[in-house]
Design a protein that fits this description.
The structure is a homodimer.
Chain A: E1 2-9, H1 27-39, E2 46-47, E3 56-65, H2 75-82, E4 87-94, E5 107-116, E6 129-131, H3 137-147, E7 149-152, E8 167-180, E9 183-192, H4 199-211, H5 217-225, E10 240-246
Parallel strand pairs in A: 3-10, 5-6
Antiparallel strand pairs in A: 1-3, 1-4, 2-3, 5-9, 5-10, 7-8, 8-9
Helix pairs in contact in A: 1-2, 3-4
Chain lengths: 257, 257
């Protein structure tokens, strides 16, 4: 029997999603430890995709195979008794026929959060990166349009990726700004059919740089020819959140998973 | 020369504002250690009021006396080189003539944040308490009106307070709710001329209980006769934030302090 889980985590104290050989604390490692305790045998937990060290997830989607008499909707409670407070299974259900959380993911939305303020702000730094300069939102929104559509994003992929192809489709990038006195908070929502290693953080870095006056030519060259030489720096992990994964079918009754 | 500081902290890893004899980590202790390093002599740092262990502050106001050639507006940068990332001086200035951050505080606003969701949510639990039941906002808003005005709040004061009088004025309580699927996020803004030990957390607990169907009579008895016997439980510290302190005069140029 296959179960689907909706998982939320504060990534600060995790070495990313994927289980590591060297004993680092990972989301997959913690979920599999809990699953093995619940099912009484070694149990693998698959995810829609990995998240890097320090990256957060509001609604990561996972699946696992196992046999238990516990009702599927109550499985999340069993997990949460085994997990530390920075990792929670927020919903569980029987998986639809033929469901695979990795291959079935149709679109994912990540949110990158950053703030500009004269000093670091302790109440923001866990979930947002600090910008050294305050970008203008209009040039960022104009540049966001260039990313949309199908492109070869190899210039936006950090080395170390094992992806077979670097072609991806970005459906939409939305950028918002909230101002409060000398503080500006920016959020970049990126929805696509999949993302390469550090791709969202690389896109966010380029957009913030363009907001601070960087010309568009290096971005155009990166999208057209894969030229990464003049791209801005990748943004830090703490500002990144996996917001949602869509499969084209509802997975959980009554949950905005 | 007197300086005024605007201080932000994530209270999670502090044993409250006030310096402790037993070596616990406190906001005052860390600020005084930094101030003593900057001014080259033992320096006391006063605050608008104490915050309890685990309570956060967006804009706590402090003052200190010392002599330095560092421009007042740049003093915050010197502090931040000495402080850990969960505590920052976000603005500094020369204090106005006769300024006292403790006695001069005219009104303070605290925000209590809580959420209702089927499970704990790791991305919320650092700054909001989880409610076991989802309250209705209308009865909470109606009950909030009873707190407003001048009252003897001794029923809402935890034992251990050294306050001379338990009479305080609450100017305004505002409550907001944001819904996202099965998640509801509540914020209670309480503005008053001062607050007793655990008073805001006690008020928040009573308001959430009333939102879940508790009758008004115990609240009315508590406000009229100081009867605390039937009041709801005090809410946990993590949901509480000192949002702002007003002195009736601007303290920092261009900062929403």
């Amino acid at each position: 029997m296959r179960y689907v889980l909706c998982v939320q985590y504060d990534g600060t104290d995790f070495s990313g999603y994927q289980r590591q050989e060297r004993g680092e604390r990972t989301v997959q490692g913690e979920l599999e430890r809990a699953a093995s305790a619940i099912f009484g045998c070694e149990t693998r937990v698959a995810a829609s995709g990995r998240t890097d060290a320090g990256v957060h997830a509001r609604a990561q989607i996972c699946h696992l195979d196992g046999e238990t008499s516990i009702p599927a909707e109550r499985l999340c409670l069993c997990f949460n008794r085994e997990l530390a407070p920075d990792l929670r299974v927020i919903a569980s259900a029987a998986a639809p026929e033929g469901f695979d959380c990795t291959r079935g993911a149709k679109r994912k939305t990540y949110v990158y959060s950053a703030y500009y303020a004269p000093t670091e702000l302790p109440l923001f730094s866990r979930y947002a990166a600090r910008l050294q300069e305050c970008p203008g939102i209009s040039p960022m929104q104009a540049a966001a349009r260039l990313f949309e559509g199908e492109h070869d994003f190899r210039a936006f992929c950090a080395s170390g990726s094992s992806a077979k192809t670097t072609v991806r489709t970005i459906y939409r990038i939305e950028i918002s700004e909230i101002r409060r006195g000398t503080l500006s908070i920016f959020r970049i929502y990126v929805t696509g059919n999949g993302f390469l290693y550090k791709m969202v953080r690389s896109i966010a870095g380029e957009l913030f740089a363009i907001g601070c006056g960087k010309p568009l030519a290096p971005l155009e060259a990166a999208l057209a020819h894969g030229d990464r030489a003049l791209l801005a720096k990748t943004m830090p992990a703490a500002g990144l959140l996996l917001d949602r994964v869509d499969y084209g079918i509802p997975l959980f009754a009554g949950v905005n998973g």
